């Protein structure tokens, strides 16, 4: 009886093994691009949960200029503020959305002897109050002038 079970298991293992395929989908011809299956056998595209996206290091930012006054203006946090022009200005980078739903209203800069507080304000373009926009992140940048060179002063985000 034991031999019969062993033979049955061996037969099952050989039958299930079948021909191997290097593609992710056996019905997909070898060497065809992923997701290039035909008809209903094609696997759906993977779903990426919110917040799981990645951005390439050094991804470029779209330069913008203030378009204020905007509707529903609010302070938004920025990602970085890098000195430029020998410390006489700052290149401010932040994550935003598509225009006309999210446009730069203005940037407020308050300087003291110890720190520079930069606050970015965004809102909806007043010329398109009923606009419908897709929810997609866009990296934006703008340059702000300082009254005096940055020097050793700390740069602080006024929206945090």
UniProtKB/TrEMBL annotation:
Keywords: Signal. Residues 1-24 form the signal peptide. It comes from the Bacteria. Residues 20-83 are annotated as: Disordered. Residues 42-63 have a biased composition (Low complexity). This is Uncharacterized protein.
